[in-house]
């Protein structure tokens, strides 16, 4: 049982890392918490569900479409609201209120469109090829999720550390004003980062029906809370620290589900409090500067 809990926690940890990655990227660039993050994950989940249930489109194909769609929506949302927020006297507080409103609007519209019932998808949509490690069997969807998450994490790493735009993004994370003074178009860089953040939410959403067991229109708030816990455990403002946070969160959750199931829902958040008391900046410490 211990081996199953640790391996299963690591596998789920990659999904959790992907779940929080977009939220952490947006926070790193804008220093704002997107309270609608979980609702965009929910929309990505319903996008995969509708595509499969109506046209039998594999979720892996849906992911490609959602990357483009969510990226465009993210950039449009940025240009529509964020520059105005940044000009206000208290952009952080106003962003919380505004994104909370966006979250509630998405949830209400999704409920009108999809109803309130929980929806599930066939777990064998990726085939029936379970992964066997140390005699323990893990569902096909789990290791497919690991592969998709690993590719997304690797591409984000290459973007941040191997591209000119990525270096500009890291500069904005370090100091927005200094970056603007150096001649970099901060709004353009931030809009692209916001679009990438929502695209990552869409990718996580397409995997959510298989990893969380079902989807429903009011799940966004819970996903946002979980994502925030994950990024704080790793390092708030450090997108790559989300990997550590996701794995720690996943292993802690699986261990508690195996040995103390009645406490499993609370355990990761107790872990969060302990980490904040010991290392207030998260496991990787301060991660806002990348230059």
TrEMBL record:
One cellular component term from this protein's GO annotations in UniProt: plasma membrane
Subcellular locations according to the entry: Cell membrane
Record membrane topology: Multi-pass membrane protein
Predominant localisation class: membrane
UniProt keyword Transport present: yes
Keyword Chaperone: no
A molecular function (GO) term: transmembrane transporter activity
Alphabetical UniProt keywords: Amino-acid transport, Cell membrane, Membrane, Transmembrane, Transmembrane helix, Transport
GO biological process terms on file: amino acid transport
Membrane-spanning ranges: 6-27, 34-54, 60-81, 93-114, 140-160, 189-207, 240-260, 266-285
CDD domains: TM_PBP1_LivH_like (cd06582)
One Pfam family, short name: BPD_transp_2
Source domain of life: Bacteria
Classification via PANTHER family: AMINO ACID ABC TRANSPORTER PERMEASE PROTEIN, BRANCHED-CHAIN AMINO ACID TRANSPORT SYSTEM PERMEASE PROTEIN LIVH
Family statement: Belongs to the binding-protein-dependent transport system permease family. LivHM subfamily.
Designated name of the protein: Branched-chain amino acid ABC transporter permease
